[in-house]
Specification:
This protein is an alpha+beta fold. It has 4 domains: about 5-215 and about 230-235, 2-Layer Sandwich (Heat Shock Protein 90), CATH 3.30.565.10; about 240-390, 2-Layer Sandwich (Ribosomal Protein S5, domain 2); about 410-500, Rossmann fold, CATH 3.40.50; about 515-555 and about 565-640, Up-down Bundle (Four Helix Bundle (Hemerythrin (Met), subunit A)), CATH 1.20.120.790. The chain has a 9-stranded mixed β-sheet. Strands 12-13-16-14-15 form a 5-stranded mixed β-sheet. The radius of gyration is 33 Å and the shape is elongated. The structure holds adenosine-5'-diphosphate (ADP).
């Protein structure tokens, strides 16, 4: 035996074992999907070959026929799926079939609960592809030869921990998969059953899916045989690219099944847009919004994106080529009529036509989302809970479409006081008070910190709605979204509030008087707090809390500062020097009223420092020196007990 012909037995990656076990149990009620998955892979393999052959015809090895064959053998109890696609090298088989190379694998396994119903949904979301063969087979033989190479390999596994791989001969390029059916799966050894599964799940595959068919002998009126019994090849599917058909000829099921193929997903999509764009750049797009976020959504290196075809020839599914990052969850196909076929992927990247197509496609997706928001609130809610945080990146990333993206945003607000994000900025604007000019918001570390922020007290009292923001991305969002519908967005924790316009005459008078009353206290507090604050003043924000911290209009919010600190960014390093807050005290609070009469300077200082630290805590912030705070507080408590 030569070295190349060596036969190896290798162990599956631990995850594969786990995945196989899970899948076999949880997907059993949908077992016929194995055929869809394997056909889908065959179709992708044909797409890849067609692309490679554009620059290297010899890969066709004299036969440019691309198809998938499905056969079965009742005696052997096998089903065979063979494609004439690109095939795999030994290394590729090891990497792709013995390993889960997918990003998000770790998160996937972390999410598993042991509850079968839940896990099977997760597994669908993760996508199982090739391994679905083991739902119905207890042994799978995969023989493959990469186009343009000589060596073929055979991979065999019973799906139980290991597989063998050996070098074999294979005349035709491509991959052949033989499923040795488990006991009790004989229902699949039936041409009619297989045809109907293919029709149901794989009709949209643009490659012909061929099965052989028994044609009985033909006889004339006298019973004389005119044609002998024979076997003929039959194309089972309609074998035309779905997106090229007219919308009227495509059923919802067709759209859904096609999505599962292009999206590598098990679930139906949430929505789609299918449209042919005419003009200088002619192209057809069929784009989908999935129902669930893929596991690799937060993975920077995630690969599967929208697929680019040129006149039905697959070119690339390089993620960032056709969709901006904030729409990275979109799946589907864009087929360009006017691009030259012999383009390299590199040239595409700089192509003006591609950027025009991309801009058009983005508009279509935003349009789809807009109409979903308008016409199907429930659907949109689902969409937002899965993808809202990604859409928010659009405000930062996509200047051209900023307004359109801003209209898609949904937030929590004091109007509902619920964590569910379902308030649109337009809803807010509609509810604005007479005389209110700004859209108010608060950012915090968590929803409950935002909702309970002392800064909201005056707003609640006056019945002015405030948007509650607690997602990581919100700070960035808000620094890029300074205006909506002509109204500026204003943090309730920053600068002077112009709520005065909503004050009654009585309110105004009272404020003037108290400010005077507290002049001495403010001065003394400022001395105590020294470098920690830029100013101390009487608040018009608070009703129930004794004090709060306010940042300057142009300074970084305390929440943002906290996020940066956690990310290991020092303010000094960034040349920001840390913003010094303004300390605001509430003259109607008993603690503040009484401190006016405090004669003991030390006690005055302790109380001031405690109020300051409390203000940080009540916004969900962290103290630089928590033990000093506890020490001071205990000192005061002790003096109470004396
Ligand atoms: P997915 O198709 O979602 O990537 P699979 O587990 O189905 O996951 O397949 C893993 C990889 O194995 C594919 O991405 C592809 O590279 C390779 N592969 C699977 N089936 C074939 C095939 N019939 N021909 C060529 N390559 C294949």
């Amino acid at each position: 035996m030569t070295v190349e012909a060596k036969k190896e037995t290798l162990g599956f990656q631990t995850e594969v074992k786990h995945l196989l076990h899970l899948m076999i149990n949880s997907l059993y009620s949908n077992k016929e999907i194995f055929l869809r998955e394997l056909i889908s892979n065959g179709s992708d393999a044909a797409d890849k070959l067609r692309f490679e052959a554009l620059s290297n015809e010899s890969l066709y090895e004299g036969n440019s026929d691309l198809s998938i064959r499905v056969d079965f053998d009742k005696d052997e109890r096998t089903i065979t799926i063979a494609d004439s696609g690109i095939g795999m090298t030994r290394e590729e088989v090891q990497d792709h079939i013995g390993t889960i190379a997918k990003s998000g694998t770790k998160q996937f396994f972390e999410k598993l609960t042991g509850d079968q119903a839940k896990d099977s949904e997760l597994i669908g979301q993760f996508g199982v592809g090739f391994y679905s063969a083991f739902i119905v087979a207890d042994k799978v033989t995969l023989t493959t030869r990469k186009a343009g190479t000589k060596e073929a390999v055979r991979w065999i596994s019973a799906g139980e921990g290991d597989y063998t791989i050996e070098t074999v001969d294979k005349e035709t390029r491509g991959t052949e998969i033989v499923l040795h059916l488990k006991e009790g799966e004989d229902e699949f050894l039936d041409g009619y059953r297989l045809r109907s599964i293919i029709k149901k799940f794989s009709d949209h595959i643009s490659l012909p899916i061929i099965m052989s068919q028994d044609i009985p002998a033909e006889t004339d009126e006298d019973g004389k045989e005119t044609a002998p019994a024979r076997i003929e090849d039959e194309t089972v599917n309609s074998a035309s690219a779905l997106w090229t058909k007219s919308k009227d000829d495509i059923s919802d099921d067709d759209y859904n099944e096609f999505y599962k193929h292009v999206g590598h997903d098990f679930q139906d999509p949430l929505a789609h847009v299918h449209s042919k764009v005419e003009g200088v750049n002619e192209y057809t797009l069929l784009l989908y919004v999935p129902a669930r976020a893929p596991f690799d959504m937060w993975d920077r290196d995630a690969k599967h994106g929208v697929k680019l075809y040129i006149r039905k020839v697959f070119i690339t599914d390089d993620a960032e080529q056709l969709m901006p990052r904030y729409l990275r969850f979109v799946r589907g196909v864009i087929d360009a009529d006017t691009l030259p076929l012999n383009v390299s992927r590199e040239i595409l990247q700089q192509s003006k036509q591609i950027s025009t197509i991309k801009a058009g496609a983005v508009k279509k997706v935003l349009g789809l989302l807009k109409s979903m928001a308008k016409n199907d609130a429930e659907k949109y809610e689902k969409f937002w809970s899965e993808f809202g945080n990604v859409i928010k990146e659009g405000v930062i990333e996509d200047h051209k479409n900023k307004d359109a993206v801003a209209k898609l945003l949904r937030f929590s607000s004091t109007y509902t006081d619920k964590e569910k994000q379902d308030v649109a900025l337009a809803d807010y604007v509609e509810r604005m008070k007479e005389g209110q000019e700004k859209i108010y918001y608060v950012t915090a570390d968590s929803f409950s910190a935002a909702k309970n922020s002392p800064h909201l007290e005056i707003f609640r009292k006056k019945g002015v709605e405030v948007i509650l923001m607690a997602d990581r991305v919100d700070e960035w969002l808000i620094s890029n979204l300074t205006e909506f519908d002509g109204k500026s967005l204003q943090s309730v924790a920053k600068g002077e509030l112009d709520l005065d316009k909503l004050d009654t005459e009585e309110d105004k008078k009272e404020k003037e008087e108290t400010s005077k009353d507290f002049e001495a206290v403010l001065k003394q507090m400022k001395e105590v707090l020294g470098e920690k604050v830029s100013d101390v003043r009487v608040t018009n924000r608070l009703t129930d809390s004794p004090a709060c911290l306010v940042t300057g209009d142009n300074e970084m919010s305390l929440n943002m500062e906290r996020i940066m600190k956690e990310a290991g960014q020092s303010m000094d390093m960034m040349g920001m020097g840390g913003s010094k807050p303004i300390f605001e005290i509430n003259p109607t609070h008993a603690l503040v009223t009484n401190i006016k009469d405090e004669a003991d300077d030390e006690r005055f200082a302790d109380i001031t420092n405690i109020l300051f630290d409390q203000a940080i805590l009540s916004e969900g912030g962290q103290l630089d020196d928590p033990s000093a705070f506890v020490h001071k507080l205990n000192g005061l408590l002790q003096s109470l007990l004396k």
